[in-house]
Amino acid sequence: MDDVRSGPDGERFELRPYRPGDEDALMAVCLGTGASGEDATDVFRLDPRLLSEIYLLPYLALESELATVVADGDDRPVGYVLGALDTAAFEAVAEERWWPALRERFPLGSMPEDAPEAALVRRIHEPGSTAPDVLVDHPSHLHVDLLPVAQGRGLGRRLLQRLFDQLAAAGSTGVHLGVSRANERAIGFYRAMGFVEWPTERSGALTFVRRMSA
Fold first, then answer.
1. pTM reported for the whole predicted model
2. How far apart are CA 115 and CA 14, in angstroms?
3. How far apart are CA 135 and CA 173, in angstroms?
4. In this structure, are residues 62 and 93 in contact, taking their beta carbons and an 8 Å threshold?
5. pLDDT given at position 100
6. Which positions fall inside the N-acetyltransferase domain (predicted)?
7. Interatomic CA distance for residues 51 and 40, integer angstroms
8. Domain that holds residue 112
9. In this predicted structure, what is the pLDDT of residue 200?
10. Residue 171's domain is classified under what CATH number?
């Protein structure tokens, strides 16, 4: 554990590695930030866990050593950063070890087409792969989320720097991430952290990249 900090309101936070048993709290963070950085509880009503099955739990299962948690004074996770050192390898392992069981649990058509969960089910069946040109210099990728109570305290910056250090030590030359165009606060944060926009044709999302030397 490290980086114990106390804000002007007396709240205390620390950065620590993910531990088994954190999952429920981390899923609450994922859902609580799942609507372009806002609370998605009222969006994913049919299955609130489904978002985490795609954007959180695979990383805890496959690359838990890169998962760092922000915990409050009661040691309850209120934020996290997740990473994959080699995105292409991660996608291949997930195709073998993660997606098949989910596809059995969530067949295509298992959610009403007008429900937001339907798009998540389609993603489970067609997760896609990252464009090779992105991976040439930016083979790693990450996800970072903080509940409002932990925002504005410099914790996001510390989470990313900790992950950057881990990735660089493991030989990564760069990292990329995706962010909704609607999440203006996150876009500003990533730019401040040295990320630059990568040309992409995706209408609803942006891709940002950062070299480890940035």
1. 0.94
2. 37
3. 10
4. yes
5. 98
6. 13-213
7. 9
8. 2-211
9. 76
10. 3.40.630.30
| Interval 87-146: pLDDT, tens | 999 999 999 999 999 999 999 999 999 999 999 999 999 999 999 999 999 999 999 999
Residue position matching structure tokens 């932990």:
150
Distance CA 52, CA 34 (A): 9
Residue 168 C-alpha from the chain's centroid: 19
C-alpha 194/C-alpha 210 separation (Å) is: 6
User: Which band of pLDDT confidence, cut at 50, 70 and 90, is reported for residue 5?
Assistant: low
Q: 87, 72, 93, 88: which is closest to 153 by C-alpha? A: 72
Half-sphere exposure of 128 (CA within 13 A, CB side): 9
3-state secondary structure of 32: helix
CA dist 34 and 26 (Å) reads 12
- Cβ atoms of residues 82 and 65 within 8 Å: no
How many C-beta atoms surround the C-beta of residue 195 within 10 A?
23
Question: In sequence order, which ranges of the chain are alpha helices (DSSP H)?
Answer: 23-32, 50-55, 57-62, 87-97, 99-105, 116-125, 132-135, 155-169, 184-192
For every residue of 103-147, which 3-state class applies, written as one string? HHHCCCCCCCCCCHHHHHHHHHHCCCCCCHHHHCCCCEEEEEEEC
Task: Give residue for tokens 């040439």.
Answer: 136
Please give the tally of structural domains in the chain: 1
pLDDT tens figures, 16-29 = 999 999 999 999 99
User: Residue 114, CB half-sphere, CA atoms under 13 Å: how many?
Assistant: 0
